[in-house]
Amino acid sequence: MSNCAVTVLMPVYNAESYLSMAIESVLSQSFHDFELIIVDDGSTDKSFAISKKYSERHSRIRIFRKDNSGISDTLNVGLSNARGGFIARFDADDIMYPNRLETQFKFLGSNPTLGFCGCFLELIDADGAAVGWSKPSPVTRAEFEKLISERRPITFNHSSIMCRTTAMAEVGGYDRSMEPTEDTDLFNKILALGYDALIIPEYLLKYRLHSTSIGAHKLKTQIENRNFIAYNFYARRFRTPTVSREEYTQIMASRPLLQKVLYSTEKMYLVNRHMSLYDYANRRYVRMTIHFVFSVLLRPNRALRRVLVLAARGLGYSLGARNAGA
Question: For a FRET experiment, which of 15, 16, 131, 263 has its CA 20 to 30 Å from that of 45?
Answer without folding.
Answer: 131
